[in-house]
Design a protein that fits this description.
The chain has 471 residues and is an alpha+beta fold. The chain is built from ten helices and 22 strands. It folds into two domains: 356 residues; 64 residues, no CATH class. Strands 1, 5, 6, 7, 8, 9, 10, 11, 12, 15, 18 and 21 form a twelve-stranded mixed β-sheet that branches. A hairpin with a 5-residue loop joins strand 10 and strand 11. Helix 6 packs antiparallel against helix 7 and helix 8 packs parallel to helix 10. The radius of gyration is 26 Å and the shape is globular. Keywords: ATP-binding, Motor protein, Nucleotide-binding. This is Kinesin motor domain-containing protein.
Length: 471
């Protein structure tokens, strides 16, 4: 696989999970892969049961980049989907990877993995970290452990639930997704009040890691705090979107970013004082006449000099913030390694759920009843997933307006998408072959082919003749 030339496209892959012994009695979905040219596939699935009003077969468009069988291990998925993007990230690009599917289909297994000792079964984010550290070791040959320019990986791990983000590397602290005056999205925690009236608002914690084992331990510790809940498939379903960021960093970059936070905390009380002085002077300079109308106070004209002095001090502190932000840019732009700031983003999306109007869904022959809270949470998850699809499609089709504001999830991912114009994005559709999950599987495939077909339709000519393949 090579990185696509249309860097706003999102490649779509299908991964079938194995059918465990407990599900063998329900039968399997009949499926057939169809190859179109070198790197394009479509898929056809067939239900062995008859359902009123539902077609027994469904076929995708030629929009899939590859289809992994149930025998494919995590290492092979990593080598096909991620490995070829390493040069781009080592040149400072941003690459995004998503796992989408219904609960229990293998999303977390694909992104994180469960066997952390066997290199064959590491999730793709850990396999990526392992490869990155090997590349960084070569670049760090001429540095010491205390060198501020020594390269490492900054780990950020947080989950999106309802309208908030929760920092899994900082005691599950709640953070808020906001759009700033600069037009960028910021994810920040609770406001801290410090001595001297300083106010500090910290972003999602970046945990610097200098070797693979350290990163692995930090990641696993953070994942213990991830929220789970009952779903229609199993009782420990991930009911949040988990986001793992791996950024190439050094100590100099982290110190420069910390300095920005400190300068911002110093600016807050000065800015508040300038506002107070302006309001106070403005209020003192007016009065009410006999008719209750506000008019200028002839005995107390506005003291513009006091206002100007307060504004001058605020401008001085704002200049310190600007200087600190410029220093961050300088550290990035003057590094002898172009990889500094390069980043991988892995998103383990919450399981898509599909409820009937009565709040039930039949799974494996049993009717699962949901609570009002379950349905509300599932509606939020499905709204997030719909918004993500629309953002990916709008970018691939070069639409003038990208609907990032449609959900908190897409707001949180906004900066990653914007910065990935010279990177790469891919979505892995995890599906179950169990016959009683046919509807959920088809819904997953429909979602993914809509994502994949946007890029295919935006940049390609005629497809090659189709060739049916055995699965």
């Amino acid at each position: 696989m090579t990185v696509t030339s249309n860097l706003r496209d999102c490649k779509a892959y299908v991964r079938w999970r194995p059918l465990p012994p407990s599900e063998t009695t329900v039968g399997e979905i009949q499926r057939q892969n169809i190859k179109h040219g070198n790197h394009t596939y479509s898929i056809q699935v067939e239900s062995h049961e008859s359902h009123p009003g539902r077609p027994p077969t469904w076929k995708s468009t030629a929009s899939l980049s590859n289809i992994f069988t149930s025998e494919t291990n995590n290492k092979a998925v990593f080598e096909t989907v991620v490995q070829s993007t390493l040069p781009a990230v080592l040149d400072g690009a941003v690459c995004n990877f998503f796992a989408y599917g219904h609960s229990g289909s293998g999303k977390t297994h694909t992104i994180i993995g469960y066997d952390y000792e066997n290199v064959e079964n590491l999730g793709i984010c850990l396999s990526t970290a392992n490869q990155l550290f090997q590349a960084l070791d070569d670049l760090n040959n001429d540095t010491t452990d205390r060198d501020p320019n020594r390269l490492g990986i900054g780990l950020r791990l947080y989950e999106m639930r309802r309208k908030s983000a929760f920092d899994l590397l900082n005691n599950h602290n709640e953070c808020f997704v906001r759009e700033g005056d600069d037009g960028r999205t910021h994810i920040r925690g609770e406001t801290e009040t410090l001595e001297g009236g300083k106010v500090r608002v910290r972003p999602i914690v970046t945990r610097p890691c200098w070797n693979f084992e350290q990163l692995r331990q930090e990641l696993l510790a953070g994942l213990q705090l991830r929220a789970t809940g009952s779903s229609t498939i199993h009782d420990q379903s991930s009911r949040t979107h988990a986001i793992v960021e791996l950024e190439i960093i050094n100590s100099a970059l982290l110190e420069a970013r910390d300095a920005v936070i400190e300068r911002q905390s110093e600016l807050v009380p000065v800015g508040k004082e300038a506002t107070r002085v302006y309001i106070e002077e403005s209020y003192k300079s007016i009065m009410q006449d006999d008719n209750g109308k506000w008019i200028p106070n002839p005995d107390r004209p506005i003291n513009q000099a006091v206002i100007d002095e307060a504004e001058k001090l605020k401008d001085e502190f704002q200049a310190r913030v600007d200087q600190a932000e410029l220093h961050v840019a300088t550290v990035l732009n003057t590094s002898k390694h172009s990889c500094l700031g390069g980043r991988y983003v892995f998103v383990d999306l919450a399981g898509a759920e599909f409820f009937t109007s009565e709040g039930t869904q039949t799974v494996r022959g049993k009717s699962s009843t949901s609570t009002a809270q379950d349905r509300q949470e599932s509606r939020q998850i499905n709204a997030d997933l719909f918004a993500l699809k629309e953002v990916i499609r709008a970018r691939a089709l070069r639409q003038p307006r990208i609907p990032f504001r449609s959900s908190t999830l897409t707001m949180a991912l906004r900066e990653h998408f914007v910065q990935s114009d010279r990177g790469y994005s891919a979505m892995i559709l995890t599906v179950s072959p169990a016959a009683d999950q046919y509807a959920a599987t088809v819904n997953t495939l429909k979602y993914g082919t809509l994502v994949g077909s946007a890029g295919a339709g935006a940049g390609a000519g005629a497809a090659a003749p189709a060739k049916k393949l055995k699965t």
